[in-house]
């Protein structure tokens, strides 16, 4: 993804270069290697898994919410794929996902305040994800 974004001008150009000998996205792979090393040193596997799962479910919540937003904004748009059981099934998905996120956040904060963990994993995951927001606006402005 990093390689493709760089080739489309939506990320740093060096990440979109192809290795001359191996014909691979070497720079993008090195960038991911550095990021993975940083993540490994940030904590245990369980911390990383907790962060990843929480952030993934947060994005799933936004994905399902996007179905409702797009249906409201573009009611006459062609829909090649119909959401099964709309609106009941997506509402149930939103409620269950929200419940999961709230419970996870509550448990993480409880574990932190009681001294069981040194970090609120879910909040740390959101913070790491939010690091990308300035990059998004930078590249959006740079490559209009």
Brief sketch in words of this structure:
By secondary structure, the chain is mainly alpha-helical. It has helices spanning about 1-5, 25-40, 45-75, 90-115, 120-130, 130-140.
Task: Provide keyphrases for this structure.
2 domains; 6 helices; mainly alpha; 69% helix; 144 residues
Helix-strand layout with pairing:
Elements: H1 2-7, H2 26-42, H3 45-73, H4 88-113, H5 121-130, H6 132-142
Helix pairs in contact: 3-4, 3-5
Q: Could you say which structural class the secondary elements and strand pairing correspond to?
A: mainly alpha
Q: What is the total tally of β strands?
A: 0
Percent strand equals under 5%
The succession of helices and strands, N to C, reads: HHHHHH
Explain the overall architecture.
By secondary structure, the chain is mainly alpha-helical. It folds into two domains: 1-42, no CATH class; 43-132. It has helices at 2-7, 26-42, 45-73, 88-113, 121-130, 132-142. The radius of gyration is 19 Å and the shape is flat.
């Amino acid at each position: 993804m990093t390689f493709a974004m760089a080739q489309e001008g939506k990320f740093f150009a060096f990440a979109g270069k192809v290795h001359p000998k191996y014909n691979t996205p070497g720079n993008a792979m090195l960038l991911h290697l550095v990021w993975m090393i940083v993540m490994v040193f940030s904590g245990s596997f369980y911390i990383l898994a907790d962060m990843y799962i929480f952030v993934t479910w947060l994005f799933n919540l936004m994905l399902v919410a996007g179905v409702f937003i797009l249906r409201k904004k573009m009611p006459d748009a062609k829909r090649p794929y119909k959401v099964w059981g709309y609106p009941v099934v997506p509402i149930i998905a939103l409620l269950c996902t929200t419940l999961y996120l709230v419970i996870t956040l509550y448990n993480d904060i409880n574990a932190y305040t009681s001294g069981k963990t040194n970090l609120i994993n879910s909040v740390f995951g959101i913070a790491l994800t939010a690091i990308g927001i300035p990059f998004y606006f930078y590249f959006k402005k740079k490559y209009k």
